[in-house]
Write a structure and sequence with these properties.
Structural class: alpha/beta
Organism: Rubellimicrobium mesophilum DSM 19309
GO molecular function: hydrolase activity, acting on ester bonds
Helix content: 25-40%
Number of domains: 1
Pfam families: Lipase_GDSL_2
CATH superfamily: SGNH hydrolase
Protein name: Lipolytic enzyme, G-D-S-L
Strand order of the largest sheet: 2-1-3-4-5
Strand content: 5-15%
InterPro entries: Ester_Hydrolysis_Enzymes, SGNH_hydro, SGNH_hydro_sf
Largest sheet: 5 strands, parallel
CATH class: Alpha Beta
Order of helices and strands: EHHEHEHHEHEH
Distance between the termini: 16 Å
CATH architecture: 3-Layer(aba) Sandwich
Length: about 210
């Protein structure tokens, strides 16, 4: 049975839209999360969920901790699981937070760094070779209870799909623009509603089949 590793942030973890700051932690159930929807559509695959709320592609977070840096997280994930046959990477939403001051080009460079790790000889040989699918997250909305953390973020996030696509083509990996399939919840401007999880799971399943 081939194995698919899904690497990402809170939207891969299955965090629901935030209604009020400081609310108790919870997570969408296995019937809702896009990763489990995906698993149901790929019954011959083992799907491994590696979503960490707050994870970035490249930044140690001064508030949430240095472990939010996806570069170290990806190394750990690739050495914790395996052998894998495919990897999806959906990051960039947290990279456009105001406190990082990152341009769309800088965010894309972070994804390039993750591809450098995934496509390295060390990791490819460890797993016997695996395919990669880069998923660009949908653009954020600057609204809701955490809008102050994403002030100015929408402009950068709107430019990411074209940059991610060009990067994926240059590196010879798969690409999916999640924003062409779903939108973020208007409740908090960054997370997905259940129907979006369902649609994204179906889209990723089809993209994985094409790898």
């Amino acid at each position: 049975m081939p194995t698919l590793l899904c690497f990402g942030d809170s939207n891969t973890h299955g965090s629901p839209p935030i209604v009020t700051r400081g609310e108790a932690y919870w997570r969408f159930d296995a019937g809702t999360r896009w990763t489990r929807v995906l698993a149901g559509l790929l019954p011959d695959w083992e799907v491994v969920e590696e979503g960490l709320p707050g994870r970035t592609a490249q930044f140690p977070d001064p508030v949430m901790g240095s472990h939010m840096d996806g570069r170290e997280g990806l190394k750990i994930a690739l050495q914790s699981h395996g052998p894998i046959d495919a990897l999806t990477v959906m990051l960039g939403t947290n990279d456009v937070k105001t406190r990082f001051g990152a341009t769309a080009e800088k965010v894309t460079a972070g994804i390039a760094g993750l591809l450098d790790i995934a496509m390295s000889l060390e990791m490819q040989e460890r797993h016997g070779g695996f395919k990669v699918l880069v998923i660009c997250p949908p653009p954020v909305l600057e609204q809701g209870p955490i809008r102050s953390e994403f002030s100015g973020a929408r402009e950068a996030s709107l430019r990411l799909p074209a940059l991610y696509r060009a990067l994926a083509e240059a590196r010879g990996v798969g690409f999916l623009d999640a924003g062409s399939v779903i939108e973020v919840s208007p409740t908090d401007g960054i997370h997905f509603e259940p129907e979006a999880h369902k649609a994204l799971g179906a889209a990723v399943a089809e993209a994985v089949r094409r790898l």
